């Protein structure tokens, strides 16, 4: 395991912050029916904010870069509750926060998300460049799989600035399935690529191992680390084309899944943490699956069991 100095362990996460209105139910409601919600929670959401929420619990030194509505007391309260500093975020006047209404069926551990984008422009490349003129402050920069044109420019800027240096490492998330090109354009430029089950299945892959090698071949990359979590099947990854396939089973000892909301965000955050700490891929995936398995056995992302 390679150790970095504490000053070199800063992590930057770029992406969405929103509010999640999470409704826990015993069974999924029928259309045009009345149903009782067993518990409702208003929490911080968005992949990037979720990543930082988990990274903070793992003692990583993490910075969030996200667009936020100015003077929104609820968002500010939730950021504070999750221990997230917003000092490097972009605040927009006359904007409204994106909001997700979520139905979590605890009997089947499914979650259904209805996302309202709101009136809030996402962060721009020029804002990123102005906010982070010295990327050497970070050992790792992670991008959520959205706002793709701007993110691609950010990734290109980081690669240009770091030159031949190994740090900061760049990771991207290929999660969403869209009928047009999205984050796959950045795959050849990233050091670590997280590929979701849905993204992989959309491209014809039927398991995590074939997805790892298939994505590598499909996009013509050899030195990138490809990681693919596959829900209850665990996760797989390969550090580079010549390295061995690492395949890890899901962690189920914490009990049955009751809340899979943000499980993927939890997994990615855990991987970023342990890879940035110098752990190898097998150690990283094992730990990430363990923490994620504990997360889905409870409600929410706070107070995770990180042992």
UniProtKB/TrEMBL annotation:
<dbReference type="Pfam" id="PF00294">
    <property type="entry name" value="PfkB"/>
</dbReference>
<dbReference type="InterPro" id="IPR052562">
    <property type="entry name" value="Ketohexokinase-related"/>
</dbReference>
<feature type="domain" description="Carbohydrate kinase PfkB">
    <location>
        <begin position="9"/>
        <end position="300"/>
    </location>
</feature>
<dbReference type="InterPro" id="IPR011611">
    <property type="entry name" value="PfkB_dom"/>
</dbReference>
<protein>
    <recommendedName>
        <fullName>Carbohydrate kinase PfkB domain-containing protein</fullName>
    </recommendedName>
</protein>
<keyword id="KW-0732">Signal</keyword>
<feature type="signal peptide">
    <location>
        <begin position="1"/>
        <end position="27"/>
    </location>
</feature>
<dbReference type="GO" id="GO:0006796">
    <property type="term" value="P:phosphate-containing compound metabolic process"/>
</dbReference>
<dbReference type="InterPro" id="IPR029056">
    <property type="entry name" value="Ribokinase-like"/>
</dbReference>
